[in-house]
């Protein structure tokens, strides 16, 4: 008996180290193990509780298994017949009851949390309401309280609950911001799903589509940018400000005829495809081409470079998306990209 | 005494096409299932090569989605289930002391429909695109609006045809186990593998019709513009999710329960000990089968069913841990006090136990709905179900193959090569899938074609790919093992492991066509072991030696399945003439089968002696 306890005791510090590793694991903006808001925090709490219980179970099983395998291995030439035990009621009751107890320990907080996270903030005036509509392969964010609609980058204030109403325009997608909150599917038709989350720390969080939605499923990333209240107000104002068209009239006309039929900039343009207001300080083009002045990887570049790459051949970047290869010369593409990359919202 | 009608006995290829012998059908299932396992494995390796580094473009996104869809569909429907059916066919009748299954003709029909369904599904690779909406084929992605090419049609048609085979097989095993047990073989004396085959067959009976209904509805949507899943016209896409998982979750238990049965047999035999807590094992198996139908919505926690459904399905799912835990501890205590032999079959069985426990505990973690909002559709889930299906089922299948190979083929697989297979496969498996838990937790969704660099996902993806290649090497060594073994002489005794406990070890290896020259009398659980302990040489016969009635071979099941195969193409490509021709072939065979009297034939006792079989 003593011996086995020693094994368990020796394993305990190891487990503690593992738990520490777990809690420090992953990027702040992407990992479920590094939660940055109360919802992800609560989910992480449940994950830690379940992992602890399960590690306990695994350790017990492994310990018994290792002991049995060493102690009862067949020695060469062993012809003896072991005692044919039919069973043992006491033991069998023990390993039925203990798991039940463990499940109660896990089940009670699970149910509390299921109902807690189902809280509906859609009528709460202090919450920021955002209607999320998923498309192949981009995200539309509509702020009915502010009369603002944007795409790919969800700007949220740090001081309010964000209440999400999610649906899709085509196939099922799943809306997921790992470090802020678990996911919710976007269903077609009137079947809307609600969830809420908060991001008390300002910063950028990576969002993902989690449900297979077609060839560009992997590219359907989005960003959540949490900013303080004043910045958020400035952003809303900037989104609604009158659009400034390209200074070269030729390019302006081209932009209006080739781009604004589908896309919007400020108060101008169509609303069926992603809103382009403030492209200049977006974090990514088409969700997956990361904007940076210090490109390191294949999908990174300056806003300008990324825009040129995207407009020149959208299907190369995101196969199966709805943006056609627009009939533009290289100079025209570059001029439009230059114009868009200079459109910045100061917030 | 009734004498045999003149029945044509075939040889060579015709023998295999016409056979209704459960042992030969078992071998057919093994060959076909093994072939599809290799295809599915190749698809897996291609997936892992694509993911070995960030932003890789080894395959195109379209091809990647085809690969992941076909990998899942092939492994579940065309590899795992058929290989289990192979073992069930080869062993269950022997374990219950029967001469064949209840419906030998149906058994053959089941195999051929599965086979042609599987072939049809894979033909899609050569006709302009395999299915690419995932093995779950969620609508609207799988609808003709968003998957306009023929891929999903192949999925719908192939699985319907293959599904007939599975359903027929399941019913056949239910009837066989209920009706064909030898005298004295009561339900509570049945070997654990037979019990698990029985429960799995019951699950097939209730689960597969749900899949068929879903596939028919999807087929009508796609081919005849119906609106079951067309939201614009009042259809409902969540309905598909429900139908699919009402089938899909029991399917998981259809796969794993027979593996539980195999492990019970192998662990008990090679510990030289009776299975610990046999009746609680039976009870746990039945309970898992029952609960398996109560938990489907845990695949849909993020669908938005609401907190009440999520809470109920969370608790129901967690409950499955209890009977599963009972099984784990029963295996451990079967070994406790035993005399454990570490041959390859038992290595796989012993490797199964901790691996399956790891897959089981992540299952309980997934059952906690709020945490599942984070795990769902990430690599955590991928890791979980591969721990259960590969770490559970495939290790179980390997254990079963090494254990029963002598009974099926009369030759013992090479132990040395077997150990290489075990260690490469086992280590490769854990390398591949253990890190995937963490990939999921760190934010990697499943089914993504590629991932960005600099997210901290590179190292673990590389490890995962290395592991997959190791698993591939293990499988290749297993193939070499089969070839090497096939060149050895057939010279095994009835009980080559010397510790056999159940009826199959009471007859020659491989078993003769009629299995038991005389139906045995079963006097207790572990029937053969009981006779051994009582000092008897073999089983006591329950009948005098006499002529044995055998079913005659038939080519009809093969032709019927070809008819369905042709009809499938006709429907997919709107050539209704072709569809009608195919269906006419099938119905004509059914008609012939109904009107031609077939009394089978008899094997006379002297024929048995002629073949050198001990009476």
From TrEMBL, chain A:
It catalyses: 4 Fe(II)-[cytochrome c] + O2 + 8 H(+)(in) = 4 Fe(III)-[cytochrome c] + 2 H2O + 4 H(+)(out). Residues 24-121 form the Cytochrome oxidase subunit II transmembrane region profile domain. Binds a copper A center. Residues 246-344 form the Cytochrome c domain. It is found in: Cell membrane; Membrane. Subunits I and II form the functional core of the enzyme complex. Electrons originating in cytochrome c are transferred via heme a and Cu(A) to the binuclear center formed by heme a3 and Cu(B). It is a multi-pass membrane protein. InterPro entries: CcO_II, CcO_II-like_C, Copper_CuA, Cupredoxin, CuRO_CcO_Caa3_II, Cyt_c-like_dom, Cyt_c-like_dom_sf, Cyt_c_oxidase_su2. Belongs to the cytochrome c oxidase subunit 2 family. This is Cytochrome c oxidase subunit 2. PANTHER family: CYTOCHROME C OXIDASE SUBUNIT 2 (PTHR22888:SF10), CYTOCHROME C OXIDASE, SUBUNIT II (PTHR22888). It comes from the Bacteria. The chain crosses the membrane at residues 51-70, 91-111. It is an enzyme of class 7 (translocase). Its cofactor is Cu cation. GO terms for molecular function: copper ion binding; cytochrome-c oxidase activity; heme binding; oxidoreductase activity. It holds the Pfam family COX2. One of its GO terms (cellular component) is plasma membrane. Its EC number is 7.1.1.9. PROSITE patterns: COX2, COX2_CUA, COX2_TM, CYTC, PROKAR_LIPOPROTEIN.
TrEMBL record, chain B:
It is a multi-pass membrane protein. Keywords: Cell membrane, Copper, Electron transport, Heme, Iron, Membrane, Metal-binding, Respiratory chain, Translocase, Transmembrane, Transmembrane helix, Transport. Residues 10-523 form the Cytochrome oxidase subunit I profile domain. It comes from the Bacteria. It catalyses: 4 Fe(II)-[cytochrome c] + O2 + 8 H(+)(in) = 4 Fe(III)-[cytochrome c] + 2 H2O + 4 H(+)(out). Its EC number is 7.1.1.9. One of its GO terms (cellular component) is plasma membrane. GO terms for molecular function: cytochrome-c oxidase activity; heme binding; metal ion binding. It holds the Pfam family COX1. It is found in: Cell membrane. The chain crosses the membrane at residues 27-49, 69-92, 104-126, 154-180, 192-220, 243-263, 275-296, 308-333, 345-369, 381-405, 417-439, 459-484, 554-571, 577-596. GO terms for biological process: aerobic respiration; electron transport coupled proton transport; respiratory electron transport chain. Belongs to the heme-copper respiratory oxidase family. PANTHER family: CYTOCHROME C OXIDASE SUBUNIT 1. Cytochrome c oxidase is the component of the respiratory chain that catalyzes the reduction of oxygen to water. Subunits 1-3 form the functional core of the enzyme complex. CO I is the catalytic subunit of the enzyme. Electrons originating in cytochrome c are transferred via the copper A center of subunit 2 and heme A of subunit 1 to the bimetallic center formed by heme A3 and copper B. This is Cytochrome c oxidase subunit 1. The lineage of its organism: Bacteria, Bacillati, Bacillota, Bacilli, Bacillales.
